[in-house]
Amino acid sequence: MIKKILAGILALVSLFSVVACAPDEPPAEKPDHIGLYAAEDGTLMKDGKAFYGFGVNYYSMLNCAFSQRWDVSNSLAALEQLAAYDVKVVRFNIAGYASSDWDYVIKKEELYFQTLDSLVDKASSLGIGLIPSFFWNQVALSDYFDEPAGLALRTRETKTMQFIASFTAKVVSRYAEHPGIYGWEYGNEAGLGSSLPNFMDFMPQLPATSSRKNRDMDDKINYEDYVNAVKLFAEVVSDNDPYDRIIGSGDAELRTSAYHLKTSGSWGMDSVAEHEQMLDFVNQDPISAISYHKYPEGGVSVTANPSSVPDYLGLYSDWDGFMEYFVAQGKRMKKPVYLGETGFVYSEATAEDKKTSLTPEKILSVIQTIADAAVKADLPLALFWNYDDRPDYDPNQPNDRSSGTEWSWNERWDKGKGILEIIQKANQAFAEKHAESESAQ
């Protein structure tokens, strides 16, 4: 009897304790969305409003840690510099490039995530959104698991595809609630290597750790294989991100022969209808945003005509025309479009070119032309290639590779400072343009 009485008293005490400690207000409801997301009509959205902005690629923001004993203090400081120029979004490689780089991710997982945590937290505190690109070098991943590159993506039972699913789930679930992540990307320009009859010309040597003697036809990645991997990635992201952030492939502009390569293995020129059919094929649901990479044509010579841009199928002839075309494709597909890479690169430059054609003023005129066209056409997001905090300008390296990622720049260079200032002013132009639109409504 005494035990029953004591039990009753304890139960009442516990009940009163719960009531006394209960909060006065119910917990805040979770938002419907975090980061960038797509509206039903394909508008790119953030926080309930259409989003328009410019940012940068910062390829080495994370993987510089692999050669710096996990010290990313330089990257953290660089994010402060980017925030000072109102950079809205940063795209970066979430892993490495060589097959051996996956050891840093897989075998040093605790250090890897501690480092990534610090970068995501820092970006969020500065109001910068991140778009991590997961499998930058698709072939390096299959090489890591010693599987032929094409065969590795053909079914979901391979080691490569199982890792794509498990790693994606681990990363996305870890950061699903984090406001520092704005979107997710599969990789980098993987579609360009699809269904090529001369694919062996672009294949790297097998790593020394491989049990295979030579590459063979199983290394050929067809468009179907590539899309199979991207769809798996996108499905896993969707399953683990309840906030519907945008999911992109990270791909470049389609090849002019994409449809012919897929269907007949030939280099025939696609028609407009075939081009659009391929756009639809490589961007199937649950891919929710269309990635393109677009650069001027002609390298050094383009400084004489900053509006010059590769003309695809007669659809456009300058940057204004390209932006209109690209935005229109997004509306047709009801998915937001974004330029994951753009800017001006010139790998064939000479030292003499640096003195004449490649002055900072002429380079910046090309960047300004791209930015102006994006604002005019309401392109939702454009990310310039490539910010790198490490290198200082080296006049003996005409292609601007210096000691960092190729064609990189930073605020210590006249060109880099100018690009960041263009980004800052272009973001302001977007803000003013759409403030006027909202007030007019």
Could you explain how this protein is built, in words?
With 441 residues, this protein is α/β, with parallel strands linked by helices. The protein has one domain (49-440): TIM Barrel, CATH 3.20.20. Helices cover 41% and strands 11% of the residues. It has helices at 2-21, 73-84, 102-106, 109-126, 138-144, 159-175, 223-240, 258-264, 272-282, 319-333, 351-355, 360-377, 414-440, and strands at 37-38, 44-46, 49-50, 53-57, 89-93, 129-135, 183-187, 246-248, 290-294, 337-342, 381-384. The strands form two sheets. The chain has an eight-stranded parallel β-sheet. The protein has a three-stranded antiparallel β-sheet with strand order 1-2-3, with no helix packed on it. Helix 7 links the parallel strand 7 and strand 8. Helix 6 (159-175) runs parallel beside helix 7, helix 10 runs parallel beside helix 12 and helix 12 (360-377) runs parallel beside helix 13. The termini are far apart. Mean pLDDT is 92; it is low at 1-22.
